[in-house]
Request: fold
Amino acid sequence: MSGNAWRRHPIHEREITMKCPASLRAGLFAASFALACAAHAVDVDAARALAKQNNCFKCHGVDKKGDGPAYKDVAAKYRGKANAEERLMIHLTTGEKAKFDDGHEEDHKIIKTSPPKDTEQIKNLIHWILAL
Ligand code: HEC
Reply:
């Protein structure tokens, strides 16, 4: 099935979302599925809005490093890693120690959603970052 056929069938979006990590792991179809993830399964506007509400862009650019790494660099770091989503879920929800360039450490910001602890919204943001 061609990429275009998937794109024309919104009904497959949920399936693509679920298959994305596995496909990315498989490598062979990574390019086409990463595209599908980025363009279709991820709600980019919602992901950006959530990051904006949480002031994530204060420390992270999409392409540019700030106090924290650029999201594209985070995506590159986790490319092909099976536990990427799980790892970032922990990172964003537990306030684990974040190391800054000057060497100091502080608790990383814990993401807030409305309604609280909406895992789906956080996952959407993680998928957006990982597909950059
Ligand atoms: C006060 C600055 C600051 C804010 C605000 C901030 N971060 Fe970070 N973030 C950092 C730093 C510094 C690191 C690097 C942590 C490390 O490598 O130990 C980091 C790391 C990350 C990583 C990479 C984690 C990894 O395992 O490599 C992600 C993803 C991330 N932040 C997402 C977010 C999101 C989403 C938000 C908003 C909810 C956010 N950050 C808000 C400073 C910040």
